[in-house]
């Protein structure tokens, strides 16, 4: 369908950024069913058909990254792709949760009936995960064990304790995010407006820069902690 | 083709990590065409057919991130995909460069002819970043400008200069990289063995932790630069 064939009338004003603190809402972002819908809507308002197409693309891309056999990948792809009816149901749920909104109408030239457009309620959602972070879960132990051994090689054969590294990485992660959340709480309107100027990709890099500056400003307290870990 | 129908006979052992310093090799690893082949081989040895298939998956992933729609998207995918003949040519170049190796043979049960298997020569390639990166490119200016305005707003300081911010972000990235490259250089065998224990994704996470630790170990230098440049009172 070429650009001349339809016109989008967008009536919803998206926020630049929203901080999500509610655990129920945070879980939605990790939900295999809902998260691809939010991903599909990253860049602009879309119709249900367009969301479905991107949703199923997301599933294919996601499964491609998994370390599964070809057969298992195929099965996983089929199991996680969805129908238009299901996407519509997800959109209703996300609307009720305030994460998605009806953005406007797509007018198809020559047709009387219009199509609904949906969008995210915010350009970026920042999750304030207050529960135990990834660095304190079982899955991270294997990673931290290898890090510990690599540092140990350089450190006269004394590997730092995995538990020590785990606590440190968790604190560093909370520090970086904490500063960003604080600045959003205190200057929401202005920061949100600045974020609305950028694409999703640009905003990701912007957050990276802000987290780095936050780290440089505050991480001195962790330098001693690291030195204690290393011994 | 199910698992029962073929057997892979592998006679090549990849290294855990390879540090890339040669500018020719660096250029190759950063070239989209060659990188896509190396990406396809992340999970282990593959035939040319399988590499072609994964190459296309990588192209789709890449195009998806560009946010193109409809015909433009399809056109871009077609533009970036490669024929099996071209993939074979890329493999030859990568073989000559020492980034890929012939890993063994795929024996299809009941057939006499086998298929060549190719693999990366290292589980991870660490490129020694000596040149300026993304934070000094034109593309980053908009992002730095917004970061500058946000910092000015929340820290009640004059907007930090974009060149200053670019310098910090770029130097941090390169200095971090240099420390890790140095670790690899000095303890190559032992470190390589540890990387061989992990999958590609796991090794990515290991590198992320090492970067944070190297940042903390050299914190004073970076913090002084940031303080001077950003004039943020502690």
Describe the structure.
Chain A is α+β, with helices and mostly antiparallel strands and 231 residues long. In chain A, 59% of the residues lie in helices and 14% in strands. Chain A has ten helices and five strands, in the order ββαααααβββααααα. In chain A, 29% of the residues are buried. Chain B is an alpha+beta fold and 234 residues long. Chain B has two domains: 3-127, Arc Repressor Mutant, subunit A, CATH 1.10.10.10; 134-230. Chain B is 60% helix and 14% strand. Chain B has helices at 23-30, 32-40, 48-66, 70-80, 84-97, 141-155, 162-186, 188-196, 200-217, 219-230, and strands at residues 6-10, 15-20, 100-108, 115-120, 122-127. In chain B, the strands form two sheets. A three-stranded antiparallel β-sheet of chain B has the order 1-3-4. Chain B has a two-stranded parallel ribbon with strand order 2-5. In chain B, helix 7 (162-186) packs across helix 9.
* End-to-end distance of chain B: 63 Å
Number of domains of chain A: 2
CATH topology of the largest domain in chain B: the name is Arc Repressor Mutant, subunit A
Residue stretches of chain A low in confidence (pLDDT < 50, at least 5 long) are none
Any guess at the CATH architecture of the largest domain in chain A? Orthogonal Bundle
Per CATH, the class of the largest domain in chain A reads: Mainly Alpha
Number of strands of chain B: 5
Tell me the name of the CATH homologous superfamily of the largest domain in chain A.
Winged helix-like DNA-binding domain superfamily/Winged helix DNA-binding domain
The biggest sheet of chain A amounts to: 3 strands, antiparallel
Query: On the 0-100 scale, what is the average pLDDT of chain B?
Result: 87
How many whole angstroms does the radius of gyration of chain A measure? 22 Å
Beta-strand content bin of chain B:
5-15%
SSE class of chain A: alpha+beta
Strand count of chain A: 5
What is the count of distinct domains of chain B?
2
Strand line-up in the sheet with most strands of chain A: 1-3-4
Provide the succession of SSEs of chain B.
EEHHHHHEEEHHHHH
Relative helix content of chain A: 55-70%
Largest sheet features of chain B: 3 strands, antiparallel
Supply the CATH class of the largest domain in chain B. Answer: Mainly Alpha
